[in-house]
Amino acid sequence: MNCKRVLLKLSGESLQGAQGYGISTEVLQSYAEQIKSVVERGVQVGIVIGGGNIFRGLQGARRGFDRVKGDQMGMLATIINSIALQSALEDNGVKARVLTSIRTEPIGEYYSKVKALEYMDAGYVVIFGGGTSNPYFSTDSAAALRGVEIEADVLLKGTRVDGIYTADPEKDPTATKFDELTFDEVYSRNLHIMDMTAFTLCKENRLGIIVFDMDTRGNLEKVLFGSERTGTLVKL
User: Fold this and answer.
1) Are 3 and 120 in contact (CB under 8 A)?
2) Among 17, 28, 93, 131, which residue's beta carbon has the most beta carbons within 10 A?
3) What is the mean pLDDT of the chain?
4) Would the pTM count as exceeding 0.70?
């Protein structure tokens, strides 16, 4: 796959690893090493990372939190994860910047497309924290939005499974994997790979999606440079 610029969506839940909460230094190091490997091969990388390893607004709302405040807490959780990933990348010799959708200076710089592209052209990995800054929108929606804004060639959705299946492979051993799907096939089969707002935004702006297993070391490089298909491609 010939990509100049990608938007990588990472799961906050995956970042917790086996410990069940917070940030696993092992997972963080694995992500940093994988990102470094593709940056060194000339790919510009923008990243959106969830905050579910710390706090999920929707779960908070189910437990009595005000939904708007819960989502705002989730936005802050994504910024914490963004700072952690920035630190891990820098520790591995990769230049990185955190741009946030809400003002958090000096923790992160306020987001603009122009600033993001300037950093990427200068060789930085840009991590987008704070979601869209609006409640009721997921980090999947933030990933789709930023991917469209920075004119990414593809949105890479890193998950715990190696692609899209007919059913949840962690629950149904008979589930079979798709190598390739169209957006319309995902709709018609009612496959849930990301929330519908994010998915529709990708379709309307012709931004392809690859769902793959980010938790297996080396997979990010295989997705972009491997001779065999890794993950599942969703295209028009």
Assistant:
1) no
2) 131
3) 94
4) yes
